[in-house]
Design a protein that fits this description.
Residues 60-248 form the Membrane insertase YidC/Oxa/ALB C-terminal domain. This is Membrane protein insertase YidC. Its main location: membrane. InterPro entries: YidC/ALB3/OXA1/COX18, YidC/Oxa/ALB_C, YidC/YidC1/YidC2_Firmicutes, YidC_ALB_C. Helices cover 74% and strands 3% of the residues. The protein has 308 residues and is mostly helical. The relative contact order is 0.13.
Length: 308
């Protein structure tokens, strides 16, 4: 599975889990949110938004921004841990490129299914022996821990009493705002571009189309949401860029040096070349002819013995 496929798979898992967890926050008969995630996380977030808006007189727009900042700061270590795990595996793959590239070339140039399977086995063996994760280090646990916070914040921004009747800057929080959605799309495009920029040239070409997936999805979902929710996504987009910058310029250089030192102490292991399963390539007509000849020879021998 290439890196692009992994990104698409993980994005699908994340969106699926987000919908599942969103189901834990459901609307009751009175039109208000309810459910475990709402009572544990969403409701306190809503109260905090109201505190900033009314008690401190900052308004609901700044209330949503401040609560989103606090929530994102709270879960930022999880996001950085996830990014670090992925960057560590990427650094290993970059260092081991001289071992992996010939095997990948074999897979591309395989003439038969047997040869392709043998090359895949060889690649998995090389990854296993050198401690490279097939999933690229993108563990699901940190992501699953973050999703309830995202879901709760969404409902807090959408259903906290008074939010949708308030104004902030040039827009009303209860209505959609096209300029704000364009800004959101730009933020997530920058984040995706920063992520793709650090990839090798070949992977960069493969990930070219996926770079536009998140911005397009944000615009698509934003058309059906009030500006209060899009404002929450705006802050999330800024944090995503900050997290990506930390990963690209602080975490990755350190990990590259760490991986180099690790492999100097324990040199990389090149896998034994896997042999493709041998296959009988004798043409069928030659095989049948040989069997017929053997039968004729046996019959001739029997007749000679009878005459004698």
């Amino acid at each position: 599975m290439n890196k692009t496929s992994k990104r698409i798979l993980l994005s699908g898992i994340a969106l699926s889990m987000l919908f599942i967890l969103s189901g834990c926050v459901r609307l009751g008969k009175n039109g208000k949110p309810t459910g475990t995630v709402w009572h544990l996380l969403g409701e306190p977030m809503g109260h905090l938004i109201t505190f900033f808006a009314h008690n401190l007189g900052l308004g609901f727009g700044l209330g949503i921004i401040l609560v989103t900042v606090l929530v994102r700061l709270l879960i930022l270590p999880l996001g950085l841990h996830q990014s670090r795990s992925a960057a560590y595996q990427a650094a290993k793959r970059d260092y081991l490129a001289p071992i992996f590239e010939p095997i990948n070339k074999k897979m591309k140039e395989a003439a038969t299914q047997e040869e392709k399977m043998a090359a895949q086995t060889e690649l998995m063996q090389a990854q296993r022996e050198n401690g490279v994760s097939m999933l690229g280090g993108m563990g699901c646990l940190p992501l699953l821990i973050q999703l309830p916070f995202f879901s709760a914040m969404y409902f807090a921004a959408r259903y906290t009493p008074g939010v949708l009747k308030s104004d902030f800057l040039w827009f009303n929080l209860g209505h959609r705002d096209i300029p704000l959605m364009i800004i959101i799309a730009g933020l997530y495009l920058i984040q995706s571009w920063l992520a793709v920029k650090q990839m090798p040239e070949e992977q960069r070409k493969q990930a070219g189309m996926t770079m536009y997936m998140t911005p397009i999805m944000m615009v698509f979902f934003g058309l059906a949401q009030p500006s209060a929710v899009v404002l929450y996504w705006f802050v999330g987009g800024i944090f995503s860029i900050i997290q990506q910058l930390i990963t690209n310029f602080l975490i990755k250089p350190k990990l590259a040096k760490q991986v180099e030192e690790e492999f100097k102490k324990n040199p990389p292991k090149a896998p034994k070349t896997a042999k493709a399963a041998r296959k009988d390539v004798t043409p069928q007509n030659q095989t049948n002819q040989a069997i017929t000849t053997k039968k004729k020879n046996r019959n001739a021998g029997k007749q000679n013995r009878k005459k004698n």
